[in-house]
Fold this protein.
Amino acid sequence: MLGKGYFMSRLNWLFVVVVGLLLPGCGYNTLQTQDEQVKAAWAEVLNQYQRRSDLIPNLVNTVKGYADHEESVLTEVTEARARVGQLQATPEMVDNPQAVAQFQAAQGELTSALSRLLVVVERYPDLKANENFRDLQAQLEGTENRIAVARNRYIQSVQEFNMTVRRFPTNITAKVFGHEVKPTFEVENEAAVAQPPAVDFGDGN
């Protein structure tokens, strides 16, 4: 049989729940709204990264047509893209700090591989002048800008949500309904993600 202590513990917990919900500004609706905003912001981050990923096969094939002996760099990009594709990236992953960290790491590897590829491009003036390549350049540059905007919006929405989770009395409501702080981009990377990487292939001369 359940002891008196068990029932007292349950009553105490129920009291905390009721008091928390009755307090002015308990924050329940705010938490729900901000939680949805975080997920929506993260979904946009995923959409823009996917847009970049979709550009990569055409980019690799175009570069290969002019610089097929740069196989190692092309392979790096292709493999980094494949690792990103293996992740189960969903809006719900914002509640899993480890999953977010893995996603960031994989995207970081892909960004580095793309940067090395763009350095290689500088050695091929004919490639830089290719119309298809220049179209990909414009799309990639626009996508990098959209990624930067989406990341910053996600960071801001997470900061607002986390502040609500930590403040009194909304911290009581957050605890009752299982809301915990959400992961943002790593602190050491936040300055870097504030600006998109430069995508400049020159004027083709």
About this structure: The helical segments are 4-22, 28-66, 71-85, 97-121, 125-129, 131-166, 170-176, 187-193. Confidence is low (pLDDT under 50) at residues 187-205. Residues 19-193 form a domain with the de novo design (two linked rop proteins) fold (CATH 1.20.1440.20).
